[in-house]
Amino acid sequence: MSNLITEFDHCIPENAHKYSWIRNPFNIEAEDLPEEMSNINNLQEQLIEIQSDEALHYDFKRQHESLSSFWMKVNKEKPILGGEAMKALLPFATTYLCEAGFSALTVTKTKYRNRLQPEDDLRCSLTSKSPRFEELVNTLQCQGSH
Question: Is the pTM of this model over 0.85?
Fold first, then answer.
């Protein structure tokens, strides 16, 4: 996790203060939004509505929920504000997925397995789904004695 924080610190530009409303929407005044953001219709109003929503504040404080999943939830209720936040967060997620793919490929395709066609193995390595082993085992028939 500390390596990820270091990577974020490296990737975040010097003008990162204009994205402080994304990192903590409850700790900024609506008037302090960057000028290019305040020109968007209803952005300040939606930020004020989010700040007054106790359920969203509780969800944000829970910390087991990631920043992107919080903004995806906000995006359903407040599409303008959520959309702007997702535009800023999208490059981090896609970079992470690319890096994860390269890491899985280097683990899968070693010098002993260099002729391997890795597509199926990569699909299994990169998926967030887990196999339902009990269901798979129940569909198999035990081999009876002869």
Answer: no
